[in-house]
Amino acid sequence: MTLNSDLNLLKNGLMRKYVRNEVVVVYKTKEAFGGLSNMASGYPLNINDICVLTTEALYQACRFPHMPKIQQEIIGQYNPMISKKISKPYQAFSRPDWNSVRFKVMRWCLRVKLAQNYEEFGGLLLATGNRPIVEQSRKDDYWGAKLVDDVGNVLVGQNVLGRLLMELREKIKKDTENMLYTVRPLNIPDFSLLDQPIGIIKSHKLENRQKNLF
Ligand SMILES: Nc1c(N[C@@H]2O[C@H](COP(=O)(O)O)[C@@H](O)[C@H]2O)[nH]c(=O)[nH]c1=O
């Protein structure tokens, strides 16, 4: 991107500028807030009784509702980078509306990660307090933000993932009724995994509580 188009995007309000040492940076998964990354392992998900090991795998699988074999390969990986790598050569065959739904899909994936890992992921989100959360990326200034200065202290990007994480953090703060324990499926066509329409996702906490009632 040229400096001029960078400046135009900043003016148009799409791009954000962050000072690295004033924000919570999500960069390497082993760092303090690495668990906020979709690339973090240790936040397993369960969709329609199908185990999906990482949020990245779930997000990538959502590209291919019409290609269940590819979905299976993507979600069968322990390593999220491999899930993304498997997805890459098929990107041109993503669901035709992918660019217009991917934002909603990501928001839904994060809701699922929270519902099914409430203490760990929710705790990490709350530990960021009121600070901006920024996913630092080397290449991607849509989901994240890139370093633009020589000393590595200025990040510029749309930071859509960071902004979704902040949005979720604010929802947690207000969630006195535990509404976030349940996640409804997206209202988009063919929202399916391995040929089954994706159903309502429930937190394990809610399932355990319901079991105790009977
Ligand atoms: N963190 C991180 C990445 N970024 C992640 O990639 C996802 C977006 O994928 P796509 O929409 O297919 O480009 C999203 O979860 C974003 O956070 N990509 C990487 O290759 N390495 C990384 O360390």
Layout of secondary structure:
Layout: H1 3-12, E1 16-19, E2 24-26, E3 45-47, E4 50-52, H2 55-61, H3 68-75, H4 80-87, H5 98-116, H6 118-126, E5 133-135, E6 146-147, E7 154-157, H7 160-174, E8 182-183, E9 192-193, E10 196-197, E11 201-202, H8 204-213
Bound molecules: ligand AOF.
The ligand Nc1c(N[C@@H]2O[C@H](COP(=O)(O)O)[C@@H](O)[C@H]2O)[nH]c(=O)[nH]c1=O is lined by residues 37-39, 56, 59, 84, 135, 137, 140, 143, 161.
Kindly describe this structure.
This protein is of the alpha+beta class. It has one domain: Orthogonal Bundle (Tetracycline Repressor, domain 2), CATH 1.10.357. The chain is built from eight helices and eleven strands. Strands 1-7-6 form a three-stranded antiparallel sheet, with no helix packed on it. Strands 2-5 form a two-stranded parallel ribbon. A two-stranded antiparallel sheet has the order 3-4. The N and C termini lie far apart (59 Å). Bound molecules: the ligand Nc1c(N[C@@H]2O[C@H](COP(=O)(O)O)[C@@H](O)[C@H]2O)[nH]c(=O)[nH]c1=O. Ligand AOF is lined by residues 37-39, 56, 59, 84, 135, 137, 140, 143, 161.
Give me a quick take on this structure.
The chain is α+β, with helices and mostly antiparallel strands and 214 residues long. Helices cover 40% and strands 14% of the residues. 32% of the residues are buried.
